[in-house]
Amino acid sequence: MDLLYLDHNATTALDPGAFEAMRPWFMERFGNASAAYALGHLSDGAVVAAREQVAALVGCAPAEIVFTSGGTESLNHAFRGAWEAFPTKRHLVTTAVEHPAVRALVSWWKAQGGEVTDVGVDGEGRLDLAALEAAVRPDTALVAVMAANNESGVLFPAAEAGRLAKAKGALFLVDATQAVGKVPVDAGAWGADLLCLSGHKFHGPKGTGLLMIRRGVRLKPLMLGGSQERGRRGGTENVPGLVGLGKAAELAMARLPEMERVRDLRDAFESHLLSEVPDVRIHGSDTDRLPNTSLVGFGGIEGEALQLKLAERGICVSTGSACSTGMREPSHVLRAMQVPDAYARGTVRFSLGLGTTTEQMTRVAHLLPGLVAELRALVRN
What we know:
Layout: E1 4-5, H1 16-22, H2 38-58, E2 65-68, H3 71-85, E3 91-95, H4 100-111, E4 115-119, H5 129-135, E5 140-146, H6 158-167, E6 171-175, H7 187-190, E7 194-198, E8 209-213, H8 239-255, H9 259-276, E9 280-282, E10 293-298, H10 303-311, E11 315-316, H11 332-336, H12 341-345, E12 347-351, H13 358-380
Parallel strand pairs: 1-11, 3-4, 3-5, 5-6, 6-7
Antiparallel strand pairs: 2-8, 7-8, 9-10, 10-12
Helix pairs in contact: 1-8, 2-8, 3-4, 9-13
């Protein structure tokens, strides 16, 4: 059975180019980047090069990059750092559809005694900018907004959100984890003080990521130890991982135009579903989305049941955020979009990759009408 992977918003395969770039740094070039001899200098040079590569990808200066173990660590550093940086400002503004990692930090913020305002979205998943503007106050320490939603793929107006945050003197954090490699990312144009991403979302190695901290922003380190990352994150650098992250960033920039082909595949897939499967809706289809993401609500079935049917045929899809799978309730994203329960429970996410082919999507598109009809018949009986 051929595997067909359509869950690229959950994770991606390591790019062969990144793997080859990493290979010598495991054994031949194993030096500690902090060491004061040639082998250490070699590793330090590799870290410097990787920093330049990822800075080019996200639109900031290399010195503003702090390497981390991934998006979750970066978010923790940003939230906890903002809390400590503003002892007289205890208000947080974020959105109701952020990734579960952010939602966990929202709970942490409240547990410290802080106040949180969750800004809503409309039925298509669009951020309510008027509500965001009204939410930001003089005592707001941090405004945290995702660049693109991991479930619906809906793009958020980061530059406008940044302008509203800056008008009240709040730090502005962009979670660009889902956007990188699919749409252009520009921390400078967005006015981001903080920006995070995770390497495994764009064909880099797992266990790598970054937090961009704009020059002039002072955050206490989350991880204490040595003086690595200019004193902002202690611990010996993961040189092979960072080399792979840098190469993946370079490749992601070069391949960004290829996402238009992926968009065409996604759009053709959705058109087929709408014409061949009754009682189906595409969440967020009337607004700007990631070019690879299709969040489909099938009325009258359980999304988990369809996911299992597809898995039996070697097709990998998701019913929501990979960090919250196993929960049978509709996701917080679908609830915030006020998706009717019948469609929310029957929602499946298809997220394509650069390697996805026309033949593969045609195969899935022709399988789905029969599988959905079969599941609906079981429900009726």
